[in-house]
């Protein structure tokens, strides 16, 4: 029986959304608004770290198994590894640029950081499309349910405990009711309850602050 890999699509959707929004979050911050600078900085840093760990989990738990069991996929697997390396280099650059920008959010620092995030968003969209179209169907046939579950546990374990419920809510923000039910079904009942009672309210509050400057960024772009 094929493994249901759709939960990976749900996770990818969150990364697409947040990295798509981050450039506008950055350009929507006023340089003298230290509180919002810190909010956007912290969110960007968390997303960069989460994507690093997500790709690391695939590099260690997914690609080696597929290479062994589906040798005909050597080409696409090699492309995934190359794309991971390219995105990782950009993420490392953003990690270095973030504290510089947070300390002095000048126009030049803002433009540089936003451009880096735009490039990540662009490359990530292509990479995730490739992965979902070419390799998730192979993973569904080649991995056992315990092996697929191990990849999911690895992803959740990479998040600090204090942030895991909020990140779960990020993942489920655009999920349908069926997707959310299936995703949460892998988790213990107490975690599901905490996600609803704690994670989702915190996520709503945080995203309201994180995205508050997006309209400003779009207005500024429209006047150029």
TrEMBL record:
Gene Ontology cellular-component terms listed: plasma membrane
Which Pfam families does the record cross-reference, listed alphabetically?
Hemerythrin
Q: What positions does the domain Hemerythrin-like occupy?
A: 5-138
Q: Which domain of life is it from?
A: Bacteria
Task: Specify the protein name.
Answer: Hemerythrin HHE cation binding domain protein
Q: Per the UniProt entry, what species is this protein from, by scientific name?
A: Pseudofrankia inefficax (strain DSM 45817 / CECT 9037 / DDB 130130 / EuI1c) (Frankia inefficax)
């Amino acid at each position: 029986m094929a493994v249901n890999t759709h939960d990976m699509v749900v996770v990818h959707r969150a990364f697409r959304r947040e990295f798509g929004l981050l450039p506008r979050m950055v350009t929507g911050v006023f340089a003298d608004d230290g509180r919002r600078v810190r909010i956007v900085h912290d969110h960007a840093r968390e997303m960069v770290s989460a994507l690093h760990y997500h790709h690391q989990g695939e590099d260690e738990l997914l690609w080696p198994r597929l290479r062994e069991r589906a040798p005909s996929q050597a080409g696409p697997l090699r492309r995934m590894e190359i794309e991971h390396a390219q995105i990782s280099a950009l993420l490392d650059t953003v990690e270095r640029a973030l504290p510089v920008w947070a300390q002095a959010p000048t126009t030049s620092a803002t433009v540089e950081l936003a451009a880096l995030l735009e490039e990540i968003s662009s490359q990530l969209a292509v990479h995730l499309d490739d992965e979902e179209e070419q390799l998730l169907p192979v993973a569904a046939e080649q991995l056992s349910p315990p092996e697929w579950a191990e990849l999911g546990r690895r992803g959740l374990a990479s998040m600090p405990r204090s942030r895991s419920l909020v990140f779960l809510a990020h993942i489920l923000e655009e999920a349908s009711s069926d997707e959310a039910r299936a995703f949460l079904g892998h988790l213990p009942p107490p975690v599901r309850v905490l996600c609803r009672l704690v994670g989702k309210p915190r996520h709503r509050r945080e995203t309201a602050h994180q995205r508050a400057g997006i309209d400003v960024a779009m207005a500024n772009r429209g006047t150029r």
